[in-house]
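Problem statement: downstream parser choked on a complex file, so we are re-checking the raw output for the pyridoxal-5'-phosphate run. The parser issue turned out to be on our end (a line-ending mismatch), but while we're here, posting the original submission so the record is complete.
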Amino acid sequence: MFSDLEISDNLRRIEGMLPPGVGLVAVSKFQPVDALKAAYGAGQRKFGESRVQELLEKIPQLPSDMEWHFIGHLQTNKVRALIGKTSLIESVDSIRLLELIDSESSRQEVKTDVLLQVHVAREETKFGFSKEELCDLMKSYDFARLQNVEIRGVMAMATNTGDISTVRRDFEEAASIFREISQSGRLRRFDLLSMGMSGDWPIAVEEGANLVRIGSAIFGSRQ
Ligand SMILES: *Cc1c(COP(=O)(O)O)cnc(C)c1O
């Protein structure tokens, strides 16, 4: 884990390298509250968490203007507890989850912004819609039935490999899916392409990401 000073230096360095218009989510999962406070003190506002329980424990200990991005696999039985707490749920990976987020948002009378997670990595382990599933969704799904959820874009993870050409190909594919959906005109405010982590974010930005999710390069290794 890094010191407060290192955390703020890391944030400054990364922010300085990001082109204008690219947002930074500081991925704070498994990091202690003090590390988040240090990042907040350095001006960071968007934070990424991957477990509902951990997020709910952190929220009351931190300033109320923090913007929480949920980035982990979301189980349907945790949706109710999460709704109303996030500025963006980045990891919607099924229609069932999307519809549940919508109905629960309606029940709680809030609007929830989400991203659809697309599976582009050459790995079995990653969650998300395949390209084909998303194409079908765009062709046949009646988006008008969604009242309180807004699909703002897509989130993707590249294959976990040191092979840069594979990583670039994954990001390219996600970016092309993003553009296709965006150009289809079926979704009103579809403008976020979230991709890139500590080890691969410069490639993601080159391929068009406008939101990056960076954890260990800011905070150090997780507890
Ligand atoms: C943990 C995580 C990150 C951040 O990973 P780092 O390698 O620490 O930057 C980004 N996105 C998702 C979905 C994650 O689960």
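For whoever reads this later: Strands lie at 23-27, 46-49, 67-70, 88-92, 112-119, 149-157, 192-195, 211-214.
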